[in-house]
Specification:
This protein has 29 helices and 21 strands. The protein has an eight-stranded mixed β-sheet with strand order 14-13-12-15-16-17-18-19, sandwiched between helices. A hairpin with an 8-residue loop joins strand 17 (444-449) and strand 18 (458-463). Helix 9 runs antiparallel to helix 10 and helix 13 packs across helix 14 (344-363). It is globular and about 85 Å long.
Length: 714
């Protein structure tokens, strides 16, 4: 795990090489090993300096989250981190210079370990990143990151690193003051030794341990400091509604810890860190955003024994925003795209959309003009199906009409190889039905992208009744190749994401019909943690689309169809009032050309508010939040019961990435896990009694409430 050697010049090298893992991680075992090696070096009179280095391609990736989740007791966490602080302070005050040779990335606890050192030299490695991603997982840097970073570079420059989880390239980290020097890759150890034997012999002291030390840019109680904390607290509350404790605790660590000495500051940080590790929010975020997403990106559920498919050329049918976005992601991955539409002009327009987006990045300095030109050259617009020859995969993103999709399926299949895959980007139409137009249904699959496709990270892969395992595996390979995160679901109307996402929008419409103030409905959605209120979101996706889907579903199901409040609201908005949503400039909101959107004043004329609605605001908001959140959870459990979803974690990853479900809740299933089955059943039964069968607790959840089973380990 840690090799220890002393060279002829008296430099003790501690080389970290965690066994069985591709990256070094910090846990109880590795921290003990580092602590013992540091103690040994400090006690050895022949050692003149200490060098920390890595045998892997990166320095240290961070802490062991699996160990952290397995031992979330706050007292145990505090005790363990306190011992690690002792190691850090021994390195800082032991009288011998300590340097870190950073050959690659140093993130989270890895960067904190580097900050223990008096000198940090990084390799000129374009892939290396430096930062603290803890806040994105509901945590804070608990090994001194909130204390050493602002003492080193100042309070405000620390904020993007600590509160946003921003990761810096080596040059930016050097400019910020986190790294002392950048040298040619492979020479970082020599550069560190040179400093240890030279300047380090008279400079083995951290800035905060020197007499008269002051925080760069001013401390907490300076005018600049007080102005910052006043504004930061207000902005944080406005952005998070208090749902995420980690950023709030980070600000507390800065405010409290920077008014005292470093040792007291570390104790303050430890208290806040331990409370976060034990919090439900951190457990939910780590489970879904780290472990769940990691498994999804590794294609953990990919069928075995199917050779990995490498793609060189794919076809994209439909050059609208969705098709152009998929083409962009594919081109960025180094794959050629045949972008086909009904006319050459339409196909060219789709490519122009992609070129426009890349040119914006050129203007902002995020890519060169040559890079943008190379990306554009991979997109080949056409109106000729013969150009699909040689495509290993064809994706259609045409209008949501079965007859149109059937037509393009048949035309495309006539031009591609027998083993090529045909995928539909439909968001609602069952894949098995669409595959009836195919002469090779085993090679037919659903690839549901989200808009804008070039930015949204999720792809929902839908397996039809005749889709083969080989097709599924190869489709997953494509999703991975273009840098997206896949979840796999079975075929059903609305699949998983559209079906459950729709319940949020529908519940907002139901609340409107019941007479709740529209502003209160959307505010409740935001306070619940959703990125957009349900009425505003209906405008974004198009009220007309909601109406059309309801009409299609009614036509397909006939007398079995159960009308919803959302159907009536959407029908009135579209058919009676001609308000289709944002695309028409008129929906639940107005969209004036000269200003921001605003709720349509006439909305309450057509959906009168009930007497007293919103008068007991706090209670009403909490009631609305429960309805908007739990309706999603109930429908998600139904998807599990019906086999649409294969695993609870697929539901949670899909919800967070697909429609912005609040990460602190862990996902629709993660939130039920947080509540516990018994409490979840009680809440749903209460809502069902008041508002109808859509809230009735599913049988699976009721069974869990009596059996003691859980969706995830405790």
């Amino acid at each position: 795990m840690l090799s220890y050697s002393v060279d002829g010049n008296g430099i003790a090298t501690l080389e970290f090489d965690y066994p069985g893992k591709s990256q070094n991680i910090l846990n109880a075992a590795s921290m003990i090993a580092i602590g013992e090696a540091v103690k040994k070096a400090l006690a050895d009179p022949s050692v003149k300096g200490i060098l920390l280095a890595s045998a892997k391609k990166d320095f240290v990736a961070g802490g062991d989250l699996a160990e952290m989740l397995a031992n979330p007791d706050a007292a145990n966490v505090a005790a363990g981190i306190t011992e690690w602080h002792k190691v850090a302070r021994a390195m800082e005050t032991g009288g011998k210079p300590v340097a870190a040779a950073l050959n690659g990335s140093a993130l989270g606890g890895g960067l904190e370990l580097a900050l223990f050192c008096h000198y940090r030299v990084a390799a000129d490695n374009p892939k290396a990143r430096f930062g603290f991603p803890e806040v994105t997982l509901g945590l804070l840097p608990g090994a001194g990151g909130t204390q050493r970073t602002p003492r080193l570079i100042g309070i405000q420059p620390s904020v993007p690193l600590l509160l946003e989880g921003k990761r810096l390239k080596a040059a930016d980290a050097h400019k910020a003051g986190l790294i002392h020097a950048i040298v040619a890759a492979g020479t970082e150890r020599d550069a560190a030794r040179h400093w240890l034997l030279g300047e380090g012999q008279t400079n083995a002291q951290q800035p905060w341990d020197r007499k008269g030390f002051k925080i760069p840019g001013g401390g907490v109680m300076t005018p600049a400091g007080m102005q910052f904390f006043t504004g930061a607290n207000a902005m944080l509350r406005e952005k998070t509604y208090g749902n995420y404790p980690a950023p709030k605790h980070i600000l507390s660590c800065l405010f409290e810890g920077l008014q005292v000495d470093i040792d007291t500051g570390l104790k303050i940080e430890t208290r806040y860190f331990a409370s976060l590790v034990a919090s439900a929010e951190a457990k939910n975020m780590i489970r879904s955003l780290f472990f769940g997403m990691q498994d999804a990106n590794k294609l953990a559920s990919r069928p075995a024994d199917v050779p990995v498919q490498k793609y060189s050329r794919i076809g994209m049918l439909g050059a609208g925003m969705m098709g152009a976005g998929i083409a962009m992601s594919t081109s960025v991955a180094g794959i050629d795209v045949v972008l086909l539409d009904t006319t050459q002009e339409a196909a060219d327009k789709g490519k122009a959309y992609a070129v426009k987006q890349w040119n914006k990045q050129v203007e902002r300095g995020r890519m060169s003009a040559d890079q943008a030109a190379a990306l554009a050259a991979r997109i080949h617009p056409t109106a000729d199906y013969a150009d699909l020859n040689g495509c290993e995969l064809v994706v259609e993103a045409v209008f949501e009409k079965r007859e149109i999709k059937a037509d393009v399926t048949q035309k495309a299949e006539a031009m591609i190889a027998n083993d090529a895959i045909f995928a539909s980007n439909t968001s609602t139409l069952p894949i098995t039905g669409l595959a009836e137009a195919s002469v090779r249904p085993a090679n037919f699959i659903g690839l549901h992208f989200f808009s804008p496709a070039e930015k949204m990270p999720l792809v929902e892969i839908i397996v039809g009744q005749q889709t083969s395992d080989a097709t599924l595996a190869r489709a997953m390979d494509f999703v991975k190749a273009i840098g997206k995160t896949p979840i796999v679901v079975s075929d059903a109307r609305g699949f998983y994401t559209s079906r459950v996402f729709g319940t949020y929008v529908s519940e907002g419409m139901a609340l409107l019909e019941e007479g709740y103030p529209p502003a209160l409905i959307d505010k409740a959605g935001l306070i619940a943690g959703m990125p957009v209120g349900p009425l505003a979101l209906a405008d974004e996706v198009s009220i007309e689309l909601v109406h059309k889907i309801a009409q299609q579903t009614r036509a397909d199901q006939g007398s079995a169809y159960a009308e919803r409040a959302a159907d009536r609201v959407a029908a009135k908005m579209v058919a009676d009032l001609g308000r289709l949503g944002r695309k028409s400039g008129a929906g639940f909101y107005d969209y004036p050309a000269d200003g921001p959107k605003r709720l349509w004043p006439g909305l309450t004329d057509h959906f009168p508010q009930k007497v007293g609605a919103g008068e007991t605001a706090d209670e009403t908001v909490q009631e609305l939040i429960e309805r908007l959140i739990l309706v999603q959870s109930a429908e998600t459990v139904h998807c599990l019961e019906e086999g649409v979803l294969r695993a609870p974690i697929d539901a949670d990853v899909g919800a967070i990435l697909g429609w912005g479900y609040p990460a602190f809740r862990g996902g629709p299933i993660g939130w039920l896990h947080t509540l516990g089955p018994k409490e979840a059943v009680a809440k749903l039964e209460h809502l069902a009694a008041l508002h109808g069968a859509r809230f009735a607790p599913p049988d699976m959840l009721k069974h869990m409430a009596t059996s003691g089973e859980r969706f995830y380990p405790r």
